[in-house]
Amino acid sequence: MSNPEMLSSAGPPHRGETKNILITGGAQGIGRCTARHLLSQGHSVFLLDFNESELTYTTKTHLAAYAHRISSALCDLRSPASIKEGVSAAASFFSNHIDVLINNGGIARAYFTGGKTMEDPDTLSEWTAYLETNLTAPFLVSQAVIPYMKRPSPSPSDEPGGCIIHISSFRAHQSDPNCEGYASTKAGLLGLTHAMAVSAQQWGIRVNMVSPGWISVRHENREGDEKGLKWEDSHGDEDHAQHLAGRVGRGEDIAEAVEYLMHAGFMSGQEIVVDGGASKRKNPKV
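^ thats the sequence. predicted structure below, dont judge the formating
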């Protein structure tokens, strides 16, 4: 969807008040789609990303209809200093209060490059990059957000408070050859989710995780907009048939799961797998 103006007349959220939402990796793909969906529901959004050209385009052009409720900053998720600066910029935009953090940014490539296997010592640099970007960064961003999200004295009668949502992958539970870096860090987010949920209870913060399956978002970028690419143009019947839901996933499927978790006050430490049922089928050709 490359015309957010079509959504600008959407009303406020149906559940609760509008929220201040920080999204990492928000310039394209799932992050961009999630930002657009949440903006259409009346929320305010701040994006962090390392891709300056895509970030500028998404913030200033693609989502221009929401200019008064969106801002962004460059951020290198492998740099603790850059993470602190990015979160500080978001907090300033939100008048020092952040309701929701969506840890979406990370290395999306599942496989080691160049056909390498774990037998190759040269994979160490890629392994390190996966760890720092996909696992350490969500911890550090969450850590930096806590002062702007926590409640001083949470009470059982309170409405749902702050919420941190990690975006993982169904590859946390299954894999292909040569995916050790990606699969390990996505599985690591599962442990990080329940550990953080237990620790963050004291601040009235819930922590959950969404694990996407095959979500087709290659068109969710500037090139896709300029070429008029659409989700429905990317896949054939064989691709859709692999899913019990009857189709490949859309970015909106993840955005809707995120929106649910934002308001689900009785959920913390949990994982939602959004894969169209693909992981439940033993033989995708049957």
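The chain is about 40% helix and 15% strand.
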